[in-house]
Design brief:
It is a single chain. This protein is α/β, with parallel strands linked by helices. The protein has one domain: Uracil-DNA Glycosylase, subunit E (3-Layer(aba) Sandwich). The radius of gyration is 23 Å and the shape is globular. The N terminus is likely disordered.
Length: about 280
């Protein structure tokens, strides 16, 4: 008996199945999982076994003290220590290469253990425009470069429309691209507040060393990290101040791939950036 899968009441054609598979891959579905994602790095090291009745304390005998719980990476004091370590490592870096080396050596963030690659940055570090994204996806994790999947290809086309490219030699026409997280979160989940807190010293130092004229905050996570606010559809198009630089929130290219009608607003944002670049001059 052959299966006859359906999709929304219609036969699932091979073309539709391939399109669904490509969409799932783009969204980061690269392995079977449960109904809800499981952060295996956050699982407890061991589960305490229940005591058998024979092990209970006898009358008049004091019960053995319970072992002190081990602090997890999610507890406030531990995170404060790790953030302080990240701040010290970032502050000690006086070049972008030194910063990349320091960030790659930082072991406080667990998700790096499950990532293939460290995706620090791409493009011309002398560019006037720095794009800050969220985190690597599957293709970025494979190549070790930010924004190289389908969303990255759309990003390149978007900025080419106003004369900017990551591979341009001229700093006036180039882009510099990095992310809040340089390692891919499992299943392309959103970065956690603790992960962002540990990476922000490196991000701030990254912007300081690159010293762009303008920063583009590409999506909700960069806006949360740099502005302390989310709601990209409300924030987009409104210039703000981040890292002591003029910053423009924009919708992420992945959102535009899912909602092509939003490209009109993205084009308006690009024109706003081009106007700022022209007004600022050389």
């Amino acid at each position: 008996m052959t299966a006859n899968p359906t999709y929304l009441g219609h036969d699932l054609t091979p073309e539709a199945a391939l399109a669904l598979l490509e969409w799932q891959i783009e969204m980061g579905v690269d392995e079977p999982m449960l109904d809800a994602p499981v952060d295996r790095f956050d699982l407890p090291d061991a589960v305490e076994k229940p005591r058998r009745p024979a092990e209970a304390a006898l009358p008049g005998m004091a019960a053995a003290p319970a072992p002190a719980p081990r602090p997890s990476a999610g507890e406030g004091p531990v995170i404060e220590v790790l953030v302080a370590q990240a701040e010290a490592a970032a502050a000690a870096a006086d070049t972008l290469q030194a910063l990349a080396d320091a960030q790659e050596r930082f072991d406080g963030i667990e998700l790096k253990k499950g990532a293939r690659s460290f995706a620090f940055a791409d493009g011309n570090p002398k560019a006037r425009v720095l794009i800050l994204g969220e985190a690597p996806g599957d293709e970025e994790d494979r190549q070790g470069r930010p924004f190289v999947g389908r969303a990255g290809q759309l990003l390149d086309r978007m900025f080419a429309a106003i004369g900017l490219a990551r591979d341009a030699v001229d700093a006036e026409k180039s882009l510099y691209i990095t992310n809040v997280l340089p390692w891919r979160p499992p299943g392309n989940r959103d970065p956690s507040p603790d992960e962002m807190a540990m990476m922000m010293p490196f991000v701030r130092r990254h912007v300081e060393l690159a010293d762009p004229d303008f920063v583009v905050l590409m999506g909700n996570t960069p806006c949360q990290a740099a502005l302390g606010r989310r709601g990209i559809l409300r924030l987009r198009g409104h210039w703000a101040r981040a890292f002591d630089k003029p910053a423009l929130p924009m919708t992420h290219p992945a959102y535009l791939l899912r909602n092509p009608v939003a490209k009109r607003e993205a084009w308006a944002d690009l024109l706003s950036l081009a106007e700022k670049l022209d007004a600022a001059g050389v």
